[in-house]
Amino acid sequence: MTIYIDPKRIERILTFTKGAKLIIATDSNSRSIAWHDTTTNHRERMMEDYVASNQLHILNEERAITTF
Fold it and tell me: What is the band of 23 on the pLDDT scale with cuts at 50, 70, 90?
């Protein structure tokens, strides 16, 4: 089952919690060197841009073996 979260909804949450500590956890199935994968493609670049434009931080840890 795929659950799609509307980016506008996330933006409302970020606006509501501005200044508060907030953790957003996601299983995005995204591959990006920004979160220590070996490759990045177009879809993941859009996610990287979203993370950067909303001043979010990736908390993945670098490991020898990627997680799935």
Answer: confident
What the block records as the tokens of 49 is 């841009």
One-letter amino acid for residue 61 of the chain:
E
Residue 10 near residue 24, CB atoms below 8 Å: yes
Report pTM.
0.59
Tell me the per-residue pLDDT of 3-14, one tens digit each, with 9 for 90 and over: 566 778 888 888
C-alpha to C-alpha distance for 13 and 66, rounded to whole angstroms: 30
Domain boundaries, position 52: 40-68
Could you tell me if residue 32 is inside a domain?
Answer: no
Kindly state whether residue 61 falls inside one of the protein's structural domains: yes
Rounded Cα distance between 48 and 37, Å, is 13
User: Structural domain tally of the chain?
Assistant: 1
